[in-house]
Known about the structure:
Blueprint: E1 2-7, E2 13-17, H1 22-31, E3 39-42, H2 48-59, E4 63-67, E5 70-74, E6 82-83, H3 85-88, H4 98-105, E7 107-111, H5 124-132, E8 136-140, E9 143-147, E10 155-157, H6 166-177, E11 182-186, H7 192-203, E12 207-209, E13 215-219, E14 228-230, H8 235-248, E15 251-255, H9 263-271, E16 274-279, E17 282-287, E18 295-297, H10 309-317, E19 322-326, H11 336-342, E20 346-350, E21 353-357, E22 366-368, H12 372-384, E23 388-392, H13 395-400, H14 404-410, E24 414-419
Helix pairs in contact: 1-2, 1-7, 4-6, 5-6, 6-7, 8-10, 8-12, 10-12
The structure holds uridine-diphosphate-2(N-acetylglucosaminyl) butyric acid.
Amino acid sequence: MDKLIIEGGIRLKGEVSISGAKNAVLPILAATLLTDDACIIRGVPDLRDVHTMLRIIKSLGKNVEFDKGVVVVTKSKYTNYVADYKLVSTMRASFCVLGPLLAKLKKAKVSLPGGCVIGIRPVDLHIKGLKALGAEIDIQGGYVVANCTGLKGTNIYLGGIYGSSVLGTDNIMMAATLATGRTVIESAACEPEVVDLAEFLIKMGAKIRGYGTPIIEIEGVKELHGAEHTIIPDRIEAGTFMISALITGGSITVKNVLPQHLGAVIDKLEEMGASISRLGNSIRIHRKTSLKPVNIITLPYPGFPTDMQAQIMSLMAITPGISIITEKIYPDRFMHIAELNRMGAHIQREGPHAIIEGVKKLSGAPVMASDLRASACLVLAGLVASGKTTVSRIYHLERGYENLEQKLQRLGARIWREKE
Ligand code: EPU
């Protein structure tokens, strides 16, 4: 297992180019199961989670090639409808093969993904939606076993106690493309990744309106055909690099980004003292004033994303004054607090709130990554800490950041990988 070593204290400078969005590409790869034709997906990041999804699609009977950011999925008439526990348990997004399998093969057996370190993460909304479309669903031996004679369009309210569900919306939208009649998803997730999936499905021949709003209407079609698509840039990777500039007091141009996807992040970082210019598909960022504390509530899009919560916490850790984070999506997503405190931060957790009292400096320490975004938060803290920070368990980072250490090195960071 590898670990990352960071010697902090360098102001990052230069340009960094953002990769395709992990959370867009995973459901889009699952959507290729909806057709017998070939699909070509471009701008695919080389990530552990992408390889997991490709393995699942292969295990179901498709042929898959992945080279230089392009995935080609071929092979008509696949027949395997079982997504195995070994693969699904390593990545929750694999659960979104359920909707496409059910719509295309009229049956599916997909392992339940289980909880993870950021919370319990149920799938009740996915199941509620598919049942509403007419599927019979049983839970047997840790698997969701779903059957139907044909899905039928209907009205589905998909809001849960924590708001809408991103992968739940994806799953139901994909299933409804091949249902008979009209489906209306109410309280649909509005995330840009849902929009990217809808745009891919439309290229495949689906009839979808209202995506990007809480009400999505899908008019079912008999079949979908192959399509080509380029994945949107990863807004969370972009936000992480923006914070790397602020936390080190550097100046970075983040390229291949869609600034309109980062409204809430840009707003908060400006409030904290950043100067941010939007230049087409680039964002230039540096510190304008001394850092100022802010309060943040994570919310579904277009609110502040939970996937940026850990990273902004590392910036708040060195921001004079008190900042408060309220985590509304995953109230237990705070594993990084203890590790930041080991680096000298003063952060206290009170239920779904984190109270961050900024300190003058962080000091390098051996720390352990618990999940993808917590790992990014520890890397950011390491970039500004005095001395050496060692981040172990970095396989989490490889799930969602393409070439992170190389990209940081090009910005001047002293960061390298060693064997544990
Ligand atoms: N929820 C339910 N029931 C469900 C589904 C979700 O109660 O059936 C709850 C969840 O427990 C959570 C909230 O609803 O409290 C929102 O969860 P959502 O379903 O939207 O999460 P997800 O679709 O499983 C995606 C991203 C996550 C990101 C969340 C929220 C992918 C592959 N994953 O997960 O990304 O945090 O949306 O924006 O798209 C990450 O990239 O690090 C990551 C965890």
